[in-house]
Automatic annotation (TrEMBL):
Protein source organism: Kistimonas scapharcae
Keyword ATP-binding belongs to the record: yes
UniProt key word Signal: no
PROSITE patterns, A to Z: GS_BETA_GRASP (PS51986), GS_CATALYTIC (PS51987)
Sequence ranges assigned to domain GS catalytic in this UniProt record: 113-449
Family per record: Belongs to the glutamine synthetase family.
Protein name: Glutamine synthetase family protein
Pfam families: Gln-synt_C
Domain GS beta-grasp: 14-106
Length: 449
């Protein structure tokens, strides 16, 4: 805390945002004057905010009472001194400090997404392994639109024109939004976010930003901060940025691909490659584990009803657990690389996934594979969409939640209470969704059936 207080004073910070993430990945917490934060003897928040759904609905009362202490006991929040970020878009000098959640006895709260990732990372640490992660995030820029019944539209660019048609990798199309991306780059630099390349993706006004590879916890923090940053930059330029997995029906979805390699903690050598450059057994087992456990983790990669609209053949989004070398039609792609950079790209997660939970899930699958020495079978040649031998995935939220609920491994490692709470919150959201009658139903059924 001493180091942190000195940093806050040095940077003349006047306001502090004390932040945690809930299941959705939303920033929740308290905003306070910097002096109050420095004098604070422990910030508290009710545990129930972790299990709030996107609709703001809570789970049923009887389930709620099992998950949360009926007395609504507070959690104790502790700042992570390695997770302090400037807030460049704030009106006064502001720092956002990511906190961890503990109970009164000092135990990490199992339902906190950041604690879930830390738990998985501690399994790796105990084995002398260190995961290295590189996420890629897709998102759409759209016109501002306050009416949820009105489909999203591409924004007006710098030239005054509205983008139309597919613009994959077009530099000029990306430059249409240059003033906004100038802010994104400046703000990311001020926050020490390690972003790398920007490209225009396939969809109309769909963008992708890649992160440089690094430590999994730090990158989860960075993705969390980045999403907030992009949304703010878009608003400043009179647009909105959305990380929904499928915001526009006839455009491609948005993913969060996760590249993963594992280093020996002592030597820093990639355990996926032998000295002579060939692939190791651990590499194959890592892939095997992903294939075996991905279905149970599906709600952590695809958390919303909308997430499942992305998984369509022919869209570079996966539909099964096939793996392949330099193949974009499978969920587990092994990019062409040097032996030192040998890695597995998990292409399942949507841009809407909570980065802490998606990273925890994919690393857990790989870890279990290496532990159980799961063989992955042969890599796919050609299109993975035609691969009948690759097990398919639960491709709707209900089926995915059932897989998760039935996984003893997830309950054992991530704790039964986390799995139950997550499944119940997502079920509550799904019930809420089912109560809404869509315009499609009105259009095709109202006067016909
Ligand atoms: N370039 C790509 O690989 C596209 C990925 C695709 N947008 C998806 O949702 O998975």
């Amino acid at each position: 805390m001493k180091k942190l207080s000195a940093w806050l004073k040095e940077n003349k910070i006047t306001e502090v945002e004390c932040v945690i993430t809930d299941f959705t990945g939303i920033a929740r917490g308290k905003i306070m004057p910097c002096n109050k934060f420095i004098d604070e003897k422990g910030i508290r928040l009710p545990e129930s905010i972790l299990i709030q759904s996107v609709t703001g609905d809570y789970v049923d009362d009887d389930v709620y009472d099992v998950l949360i202490d009926p007395a609504e006991i507070d959690m104790i929040l502790k700042p992570d001194e390695n997770a302090v970020f400037m807030v460049p878009f704030a009106l006064e000098p502001t720092a956002m400090i990511i906190h961890d959640c503990y109970d009164k006895q000092g135990n990490p709260i199992s339902m906190s997404p950041r604690n879930v990732l830390k738990k998985v990372l501690s399994l790796y640490e105990a084995k002398g392994w260190k995961p290295v992660i590189a996420p890629e995030l897709e998102f759409y820029l759209t016109k501002r639109n306050a009416d949820p019944d009105f489909p999203l539209e591409p924004p007006i660019g710098r030239s005054g024109r509205q983008e139309s048609g597919r613009q994959s990798y077009s530099i000029d199309a990306a430059n249409e939004y240059d003033p906004m991306f100038e802010d994104v780059y400046d703000w990311c630099e001020q926050q020490n976010l390690d972003i790398d390349t920007l490209i225009h993706e396939e969809g109309t006004a769909q963008m992708e930003i890649n992160f440089r590879h690094g430590d999994a916890l730090s990158l989860a923090d960075q993705v969390f901060v980045f999403k907030r940053t992009v949304r703010e930059a878009a608003l400043k330029h009179n647009m909105t940025a959305t990380f929904m997995a499928k915001p526009i029906g006839d455009e491609p979805g948005s993913s969060m691909h996760v590249h993963q390699s594992i280093l020996d903690s002592k030597t820093g050598i990639n355990i996926f490659s032998n000295e002579d450059g060939t692939q190791t057994e651990s590499f194959l087992h890592f892939i095997g584990g992903q294939q075996k456990y991905i279905a149970a983790c599906m709600p952590l990669f695809a958390p919303n009803v909308n997430s499942y609209r992305r998984f369509l053949p022919g869209t570079s989004a996966p539909v099964n657990v096939a793996w392949g070398i330099d193949n974009r039609t499978v969920s587990l792609r092994v990019p062409d690389s040097t032996p030192a950079a040998r890695r597995v790209e998990n292409r399942l997660a949507g841009a809407d996934a909570n980065p802490y939970l998606a990273f925890a899930a994919t690393l857990l699958c790989g870890y279990l594979g290496m532990l159980e020495r799961v063989a992955p079978g042969k890599p796919v040649q050609g299109s993975g969409y035609e691969e009948s031998s690759a097990e398919s995935l639960p491709l709707n939220l209900e089926a995915a939640l059932e897989c998760m609920e039935n996984s003893d491994e997830l309950k054992e490692i991530l704790s039964p209470i986390f799995v139950q709470a997550y499944v119940e919150v997502k079920r509550a959201e799904y019930q809420n969704f089912k109560r809404v009658i869509s315009s499609w139903e009105r259009k095709y059924l109202q006067m016909t059936v």
